[in-house]
Amino acid sequence: MMNNKVVITGISGCIGSILYNNLRDKWELSGIARHHSNNYPVQIADICDRDRMIDSIHGAYAVIHLAANPSVSASWNDIAGPNITGTEAVFEASRLAGVRKILFASSNHVTGMYEREEPYCRIVAGDYESVDYSRVLQINHTFPVKPDSYYGVSKVFGEALGKYYSEKYHMQVICIRIGTVNRENRPLDFRQYATLFRHNDLVKMVDICLNNNDISYGIFYGVSNNKWKFWDISHINECLHWSPEEDAESLR
Q1: pLDDT per residue over 22-41, tens digit each?
Q2: Hey, what CATH topology would domain 5-251 get?
């Protein structure tokens, strides 16, 4: 039988808990975090400690790398440790531990500056009447990156690092540019009617990526099939033969 052990870094966060609660019946999930938890099987480790990470990851089929400082207002000093050094340590520890698949939690913030431009700025403000949606160009994985923060910059680094490990070490790396995921599972402002990634779509996409062995390297936007989305989901269908199914508009 296929090894179904999957290690999730940052399992105690919002996305980690959603994945654990919904995929634990399909995959043998465990987590890496900085604190003990009664809710998940957790190994305590600093992701920047490569040797500790090797021990924690050893024997896994895949690593889902979520752990990061997620603040778009964080300084470079606060981002550099967990998001740069830590991401490199996770990739290298995975390679040394014999793990062949990494799902990297990238972010929509790698192209966040587009939202300051027309027509995206109107969509995120909820100014729908002035937008001809049929002419809105969907931002896809081929667009030049435009990070909007040091956080976004760190996710660009992670994607580039993933490409390097895919090319040099023949590891499978799938980067998901995650949109808005919140515990409420609904839009909390106008922007989130475009950017929401509902829990069912998140879980299904991760499960499909874990089962996929054809893609050597990929970048996909993690967003539901929202009426006002401006990130491309056709690439998901082309490569993963599935499309996000839910729509934030139904929650108005």
Answers
A1: 999 999 999 998 888 788 88
A2: Rossmann fold (3.40.50)
